[in-house]
């Protein structure tokens, strides 16, 4: 890990099929201090998951929000995946694009602190570009990424137990 860096945990999470309260409770149970939104466009049809509403809800729970548009998958790459379904080509194209973002990734590796979760839509990290971003941050920080899965009813479990144990993994 780079000297002086206070980043001490790296996670990814997707909100597909999740309710906002369960999503936030899952982050809280993992001890996440900052949610790094890696969607190119931080908009959602799912209530509570667009940039402003999500930042406000996270703030109430003591979790910081940061959006990094340049770590999102560009529209042309997403459109090609939607038309051909070729994930191998998608990840190859996104990896090529992400190499151009190396200065930003280096800056983030040194500037972020606490436990950070990279967020995008897809529940399965294996089908999401956030896994590629996470791998690059792993190389820069020496941290190992843990993938979080949102547990339905997580907000009720946390309220009852107050426990941070049993963090689900995808």
Can you give keywords for this protein?
170 residues, alpha/beta, Cobalt-precorrin-4 Transmethylase, domain 1, 5-stranded parallel β-sheet, 7 helices, 5 strands, globular, disordered N terminus, disordered C terminus
- Which segments are poorly predicted (pLDDT under 50) over 5 or more consecutive residues? 1-5, 158-170
Helix content, binned percent: 40-55%
What is the overall silhouette? globular
Distance from N terminus to C terminus (CA atoms, Å) equals: 25 Å
CATH domain fold name? Cobalt-precorrin-4 Transmethylase, domain 1
Total domain modules:
1
Strands, total number: 5
**What is the element string, with H for helices and E for strands?**
EHEHEHHHEHEH
Estimated radius of gyration = 16 Å
- Top CATH class: Alpha Beta
Q: Name the beta content range.
A: 15-25%
What's the CATH H-level superfamily name? Answer: Tetrapyrrole methylase, N-terminal domain
Question: How would you describe this structure to a colleague?
Answer:
The chain is globular. Strands 3-2-4-1-5 form a five-stranded parallel β-sheet, sandwiched between helices. It has a single domain (7-155), classed as 3-Layer(aba) Sandwich (Cobalt-precorrin-4 Transmethylase, domain 1). The protein has 170 residues and is an alpha/beta fold. It contains seven helices and five strands; from the N terminus they run βαβαβαααβαβα. Mean pLDDT is 90; it is low at 1-5 and 158-170.
């Amino acid at each position: 890990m780079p000297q002086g860096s206070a980043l001490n945990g790296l996670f990814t999470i997707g909100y597909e099929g999740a309710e906002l309260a369960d999503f936030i409770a899952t982050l809280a149970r993992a001890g996440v201090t900052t949610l790094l939104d890696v969607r190119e466009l931080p908009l959602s049809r799912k209530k509570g998951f667009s940039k402003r509403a999500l930042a406000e809800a996270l703030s109430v729970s003591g979790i910081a929000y940061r959006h990094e548009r340049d770590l999102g998958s560009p529209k042309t790459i997403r459109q090609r995946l939607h038309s051909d379904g070729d994930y191998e080509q998608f990840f190859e194209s996104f990896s090529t694009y992400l190499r151009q973002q190396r200065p930003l990734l280096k800056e983030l590796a040194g500037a972020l602190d606490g436990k950070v979760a990279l967020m995008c839509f897809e529940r399965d990290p294996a089908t999401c570009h956030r896994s590629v971003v996470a791998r690059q941050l792993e190389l820069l920080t020496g941290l190992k990424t843990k993938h979080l899965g949102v547990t339905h009813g997580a907000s009720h479990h946390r309220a009852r137990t107050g426990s941070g144990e049993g963090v689900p993994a995808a």
